[in-house]
Amino acid sequence: MTKKNLILALTFSFLLATGIGVAAEKSSADLGQQLFNDATLGGSADDKSCNSCHAEGKGLEKAGANPKLTAAINACLTGQMGGEKIDGRTAPMRSLKMYVESLAAE
């Protein structure tokens, strides 16, 4: 098992154990905010979270209107964070999108 796969497996185990809800498939902006601040998102091993570059969502107020938001999130995950893509149909991605979309209302 590669280091990235091990980290990814441990991340999902942690999320399940703490009740963050990957298995429940329940999306929410609150879950999105938690994931936004999670340095292990997507198996990232470099201690960066979305919040590292976008502190408290600053600068993303218009990003929620981007029709390619899933691709933009995955570009950050695989580029800046050194992780792996998240399937756009999953609760974590839907939740991240909900959180980013909520930034426009703040």
Describe the structure.
There is one protein chain. The protein has 106 residues and is an all-alpha fold. It has one domain (3-105): Cytochrome Bc1 Complex, Chain D, domain 2. The chain has five helices and no strands. The longest helix has 15 residues, at 3-17. The N and C termini lie far apart (42 Å).
Integer average pLDDT: 86
Main beta-sheet annotation: none
Radius of gyration in whole Å, from Cα? Answer: 13 Å
- Flag low-confidence runs: none
Class of secondary structure makeup: mainly alpha
* Strand coverage percent: under 5%
Provide the CATH topology: Cytochrome Bc1 Complex, Chain D, domain 2
Helix content range of the residues, please?
40-55%
Write a short abstract of this structure.
By secondary structure, this protein is an all-alpha fold.
Which helices and strands occur, and which strands form pairs?
Layout: H1 3-17, H2 29-36, H3 50-53, H4 69-78, H5 91-102
Helix pairs in contact: 2-5
List keywords for this structure.
106 residues, mainly alpha, Cytochrome Bc1 Complex, Chain D, domain 2, 5 helices
